[in-house]
Amino acid sequence: MTDLISKGTTTCEGCGMELIARSIVKVLGKNTIILTPPSCSAILTGFGDQTCWKIPSFQSNLENIAAYCSGISTALEFHNRTDINVVAFAGDGGTVDIGLQALSGAIERGHRFIYICYDNEAYMNTGIQRSGSTPTGAWTTTTPGGKKETKKNIVEMLLA
Ligand SMILES: Cc1ncc(C[n+]2csc(CCOP(=O)(O)OP(=O)(O)O)c2C)c(N)n1
Ligand SMILES: [Mg+2]
């Protein structure tokens, strides 16, 4: 089976996000459009004309990956292309905090796309700041004495 992410990416050694990404595209295959927001996953999408993906990819803003996916899936539906997977591949900060409004809107409207949140429980790409998904007690650079609040239950929120 062809690897749909090139070798020699610049993610950190042993990065779990990269392994998840490799598994996703292995399962979904090349009929997939993948979007990433600013996050560690954006390293795979790359800069300018350089990318690690061997499938169409797009870099959204941190606030709006679900809005981009809504638009792309609606356009594909218009052209009767139900054979193409649209995938959002976002971190916890881009999902439970900054991208939550767009995700809530997309779910409420019922768009057809796959949303995958790799939850590494902090804003890692910018230097381990606390997110809504950081568990209680966890150290981050912005919670040096441990986080006081609880981890947001995003699944329950979206079910509601
Ligand atoms: C509106 C906005 N605020 C802040 C940033 C800066 N920023 C870029 S990546 C990032 C961290 C995202 O964290 P997460 O979604 O958890 O992904 P991870 O870095 O952990 O992979 C932040 C805060 C941004 N790009 N846009
Ligand atoms: Mg994160």
What does this structure look like?
The protein is α/β, with parallel strands linked by helices and 160 residues long. It has a single domain, classed as 3-Layer(aba) Sandwich (Rossmann fold), CATH 3.40.50. 32% of the residues lie in helices and 12% in strands. A four-stranded parallel beta sheet has the order 2-1-3-4, with helices on both faces. β1, α2 and β2 form a beta-alpha-beta unit. α3 packs parallel to α5. It is globular and about 50 Å long.
Q: Profile the largest sheet.
A: 4 strands, parallel
- What assembly state would you assign to the polypeptide chains in this entry? single chain
Give the strand tally: 4
| Structural class label | alpha/beta
Tally the structural domains: 1
Strand order of the largest sheet: 2-1-3-4
* Radius of gyration, taken over Cα atoms and rounded to an integer in Å: 16 Å
- Ligands bound here? thiamine diphosphate, magnesium ion
CATH topology: Rossmann fold
Give the helix proportion (percent range). Answer: 25-40%
**CATH-level-2 architecture:** 3-Layer(aba) Sandwich
Tell me, rounded to a whole number, the average pLDDT: 97
Distance between the termini: 39 Å
Q: How many helices?
A: 6
Task: Sum this structure up briefly.
The chain has 160 residues and is α/β, with parallel strands linked by helices. Helix content is 32%, strand content 12%. The protein has helices spanning 16-28, 42-45, 65-78, 93-97, 100-109, 154-159, and strands spanning 32-36, 57-59, 85-91, 114-118.
